[in-house]
Amino acid sequence: MYNSSKNSGGQIANAIIIPMVVVVVISVFGIFGLMHWSARLSDETAEQSQHKLIAGALQLTKNYLVKLQNGVVIWDEAYHRINQPDPDQSWIYDNIMHWLFQNHGFTKSVLINRDFEVASVYAQNHTSKWMDDQLFRDLSPSVAKVRARYINSFTRTPSGLYSFVPQSSDARRSIAETGVVALAGEPHLFSAAAVMPQIQSIAKERFPPSVLVSLVPLRGEKLKDISEMSRLDGFVLTNSQTGRDGVGRYQLRSPRNADIGMIAWQTTQPGTLMLQRINPFLALAAFMIAAVVILVTLFTRQMTRRLAHSEAKAVHAARHDALSGLPNRARFHALLTDTLEESIHRQSNTAVVYIDLDHFKDINDTLGHSAGDKVIVAVAQRLKRVIPESGIVARISGDEFAMVIKDCEDDVWLEYVLDQVQDEIARPIMIGRRELHASLSMGAAIAPRDGNDPDELLRKADIALYDAKANGRNRRSFFEANMEHHVQSKDRLSRELRLALKNDELDLAYQPQTDTSAERIVSVEALARWTKEDGTVVSPAQFIPVAEETGLINDLGLWVLNKACAQAHEWPGIVMSVNVSPNQFKHPRFVEKVMAILASNNLPPQRLEIEVTETVFAGRNDSVLKALRRLKNLGVKVALDDFGSGYSSLSYLRRFPFDTLKIDRDFVSDMNGNEEAEAILVSIIQLGKALGMTIVAEGIETLEQIRFLQAHDCHRMQGYFISKPLPEAALTKFLEDFNGDGGTSGFGTDLSYQAQVAKG
């Protein structure tokens, strides 16, 4: 009886619905098709116009390069010096090529002489390897055109001589050709101009000119200039030929018409914009029609739908996550088991992918769990939308998802699928009026290559996910055997480090810092060292990152601080410097622990110096600044370590008044004979002094470096030339030798420095 009523209701509903649906579908699809065709035609026309704008802007940029060259190619002295039998290469370097780099940013230049041979090569990084035969062949057509135009610019006089009359000095127009060439795979703009005299000349014969070719990378400011002139957004250089909707492409070609890259930009799409305005109304009309159809059949199918809905809801609740609607962990395991059995029978590959949302905790902490739930729902919907139809997506826990991708052709194919996943998730997620950006870390294991057991594959996919997160997040990793070894090694090292801390098996080394005169040790930097019982030395570069990842850095940092403060009594009058990890500042009672250590060791706060790097300010830094100010108010000195190695150190100097500024060792190591590096070093010293800070130079390795720093009154110096990091007893002996009889330093070299007094 029930089945009969159900079938009868279905037949009536179908008799009404089917004709109506056919008419509606044909009408809606016809309208949508016409609108999309018109929109695409409008978008293509707009893109063609933008293509012309870019071509014009690129040509203007090339013309400007020619103008910048004029100062050295239209010059009597350059003309005569270059065309001598044995040109002065030093003069050419200083007055032409290096001058063009300093004043106009041409990073590379090459001079081709009258015999069509390379005479001089210049590069910003002082190498000539970039000028190879391939590049010479690419430049040859343009150079040949310049030489031909120069020859044709001569006029024959009645006397049979040849006269060359340059343009007026006011105009300063050179004979030049421009274009684009590929250098090490990167597009460069170039200008090839004839080197010619400023005044009229008469000659018996016509000689081809020397040609100066100057190049500048097509990126940075140059690409920005083209973008601003064309008034288009989203300019990037790419070698990819893959087309995407909304992205325009301008092909760059060499003088030999070879493809060397393209400029891509975000196109304006008037047709698409029009479609976006109209689509909601069309969708609303379609929805209303569908609603009418549904209402007609609702009565006859109401009971059946309720029963089916209740049953489906009960089954769904048992197998799926309530928030996202995706399969839960148990259901996913069952689906994975079935899929693996099927793949074994079909002899196909199956990928298991673990997914973790990067920094999801920050969303919950800043916007609340409601916003976090909305992000989870949005990510779940996008994952379902982007993976292949045969794939499976599940929510494993709070911010963890998992996927099964069947019939994997190879790793390249799987990488393509995962690229699509990352691109889809990277699109902004709107939470109210706030725009959020999410990213994923993914780890993949592939059956049968990595095994056929579901639990084993999930474990290996989790190891690959750990590798992706450890290498910067927002990336993917495929499981490899060495990853498992790496995880096990790191786990073993963390357990050994925890035990070593518990048993007080670590040691400290101390590296001294001298004052300006190099006659007195004023500070030592405490550095953690670990030698196992079997004599194996574990580098800080190994155990410090492990301590950071496992949370042991707090215990390790406090251990170093406590031992350094206790040892400071052995060397009265010397400041003890201790590095503090950014993670230590996250501890809510870090300042109180520092105060307790100072009190327990009876050490005045003025003898302790905390060294921090600019990474300590990453993220929400109000609490960090507050902690640093509390330490400073107590009398503890605060130093900014590795100054200049990051991108925003100056802003930190403005926001927090550091006591000490430690110059990154790269500036010191690069300064020997390098005027630019020395100028930067002097500027940093002067900047620190202007802000009332003590300046420390790290990485001293030569006597010349000490002399230079003394001459510019650097307050403190540290490096292997003074002393390597020493154990406690060795440092005590070093201090005794350093401050021995005669008041001279213990280097075997008199490093005392007296500033020169200006003569009246």
Question: Can you describe what's shown?
Answer:
The chain is of the alpha/beta class and 760 residues long. It is 49% helix and 20% strand. It has 21 helices and 27 strands.
Write the layout of secondary structure elements.
Layout: H1 2-73, H2 76-82, H3 89-104, E1 108-112, E2 118-123, H4 133-152, E3 154-156, E4 162-164, E5 176-183, E6 186-194, E7 201-203, E8 211-217, H5 221-230, E9 233-238, E10 247-253, E11 259-266, H6 270-319, H7 329-346, E12 350-357, H8 360-367, H9 369-386, E13 392-395, E14 400-405, H10 411-426, E15 429-431, E16 434-436, E17 440-447, H11 454-470, E18 476-478, H12 481-502, E19 506-514, E20 521-531, E21 537-538, H13 540-550, H14 553-567, E22 575-579, H15 590-600, E23 608-612, H16 622-634, E24 637-643, H17 649-655, E25 660-663, H18 665-669, H19 675-690, E26 694-697, H20 703-711, E27 716-717, H21 728-738
Parallel strand pairs: 17-18, 20-22, 22-23, 23-24, 24-25, 25-26, 26-27
Antiparallel strand pairs: 1-2, 1-8, 3-4, 4-7, 5-6, 6-8, 9-11, 10-11, 12-14, 12-17, 13-14, 15-16, 19-20, 20-21
Q: What are the key terms here?
A:
flat; five-stranded antiparallel β-sheet; 760 residues; nine-stranded mixed β-sheet; disordered C terminus; 21 helices
The residue ranges in which pLDDT falls below 50 over 5 or more consecutive positions are: 741-746, 753-760
Q: Work out the helicity level.
A: 40-55%
Radius of gyration: 36 Å
Number of strands: 27
Please work out how many helical segments DSSP would assign.
Answer: 21
Oligomer designation: single chain
Gap from first CA to last CA: 122 Å
The fraction of residues in strands falls at: 15-25%
> Describe the biggest sheet?
9 strands, mixed
Tell me, briefly, the overall form. Answer: flat
Mean pLDDT: 83
Structural class comes to alpha/beta
